[in-house]
Amino acid sequence: MIVKLTRMKAVLALTLLALTGAAWWAWEQVSRPWGAQAVSFKPAGQACGQEGQLRYCVHRAAGGVNGDVVYHLHGRNLEAEVWNDPTYFTALLQAYWQNAGLLPPTVISLSYGPVWLLASKGQARSSGLLDTIWRDISAIEARVGPPKRRLLMGESMGGLNSLVLGLSQPQRFDKVAALCPAVYTESPFTPLSQVLEGIARTGADPRIVFGIWQLSRQYVANAEEWSRFSPLALIESARVQQTRFSLYLSAGLYDRYGLYEGTERLAHRAAQRGVPTDWHPLYGGHCAVDVVSLGTFLAR
């Protein structure tokens, strides 16, 4: 009798557990997003190729282009083909150009893989891409033709890469648009106490910040190398006065990456150094984008 009762209790417990699991699974299915908001636009024509390690895609709007070229450097874990994704901000950008009747530049998206930083060759094992990217761009232009003007654009990781490339070689680029770039007043080599103060001051997610510092150390080995990589250091040494170089910067006030402070400081310092700078502080999170001002900056 006791054994039978024990078995009944076990069966009831297992049944209850199964029902609870089924209810949880059903709730997860119902409560998660059922789809994604897509943008209504006409995707640009896309032709992709490979240049050594570099994957690239050339995008030309069906309605024509203005002779300029924008090199698009994507964010982390994305790819060169992302430009025509109807759920990404680049679709909004294309839709703006189309609705405003603007002839856009040709867009060439560049990718060395899901994660990459443009650091010059140093002691870190993954460094050196900054020394090879211009050779790869030159090879692409030998195929597609030279642009009237050469522009750079990137978001998040790509925003940082755009700044590093543009500020390292300002004579080669007319404009740089860096959206939510990973610009920080501290470095991976700053004392931990200062890093913690920065996390508290900016409202950054500590896991994200420490992840970024860990990633950065794969490309930059020490404080001296960081001074040749950080946009806040590069803006001080860049020879921008003799060029037509102009800058577009945007960042969300409560970006979980904690990059608003550094990007704002970069915008102010660039303006002080005489660089024409469009600074767009946004009330939003990571990679909030002001599509109209960005689209105008790139197409005008």
Overall description:
With 300 residues, this protein is an alpha/beta fold. The chain folds into two domains: 32 residues; 255 residues, Rossmann fold. Helix content is 40%, strand content 16%. It is built from ten helices and eight strands. It has an eight-stranded mixed sheet with strand order 1-2-4-3-5-6-7-8, with helices on both faces. The radius of gyration is 23 Å and the shape is globular.
Helix-strand pattern: HEEEHEHEHEHHHHEHEH
CATH topology of the largest domain: Rossmann fold
Structurally, the number of domains stands at 2
Low-pLDDT residue spans:
none
Quick structural summary:
This protein is an alpha/beta fold.
Give the tags:
300 residues, alpha/beta, Rossmann fold, eight-stranded mixed sheet, 10 helices, 8 strands
What is the topology?
Elements: H1 2-31, E1 45-51, E2 54-60, E3 69-73, H2 89-100, E4 106-111, H3 133-144, E5 150-155, H4 157-168, E6 175-179, H5 192-202, H6 206-216, H7 223-226, H8 231-237, E7 246-252, H9 260-272, E8 277-282, H10 291-299
Helix pairs in contact: 2-10, 8-9
